[in-house]
Give the backbone structure.
Amino acid sequence: MRCGLFILVLLAFALTLPAPHNGQQDPQKKPEPSDDVISLETNLVVVNVTVTDIGDNYVSGLKAEDFKIFEDARQQRILSFSFEETPFAAAILLDVSGSMGNKLTLARAACGNFVERIRDGDVFAIYSFGGLKVKTLQDFTEVRDVPDSVWDLRPDGETPLYDAIAKAAGELSKRSERRRAILVVSDGADTRSKASLDDATRKAADANALIYGVDMSDKAVYGSMPRDNGAEVMKMLAAKTGGRIFPAPGGAKLRDAFANTVEELRRQYTLTYESTNEKLDGKWRAIEVRIAKPGLNIRARQGYYAQKKK
């Protein structure tokens, strides 16, 4: 009798076990949620903020309550806040147009200086733009080495600057890093791009990429010629994305520009908020970051383009 009861108990327990997996899913059974699936909210906005004092020194130690974020003049609730050495992804754009001449030697050396300063987890890519093409010289990598193709560059042709920014931004938008930067090394304005300035600006904004411009123009050569607005364009792009421009015609100033970019990307505050504007209208949304403490300067992207309803 006890033996029979024990067998019945075993049978009842077996019925509660899941059926053995045979490689096919039960069409009636809904899939279980996976911890590996990440759900991205379409109205989640990431803002990287650089804070400096009156002496242009980076400021640390601030807290979330020290910041306020506004979108189109409406205050937003900060969802997350961090100040840590989060890995970044950087795209270096080297102008190899004919006007670069001997400046290209300086640009290559400074590029190597940038690469030497990255840390574990940071990635970088290198592109050249000149003539009719934007070329990938080095895809994103953590290896602290400049490929031979960079040292083999020769200046020639025109300047497809906007095409280069659009390509780099498109590649950065595929990256998982929340800190992204485009470092443009150029001595003049765009003279040959399929993309427009608006196209380049939108793509950089969509990728949440900060643009750092290294202006290598020779004022003695270019003067104030109306056609040469390269420095002004880089200033605008840097301001709109939260980056900065370095007037560095060469030498130590150029090396410092690359080194300062690496340092700045390490010393940023990263804030996120969920936009209260749920419209999918594709329009520009202005962002303003304010800080409670006086005497501090803030640089952050000035806005972004909302997603557009398909």
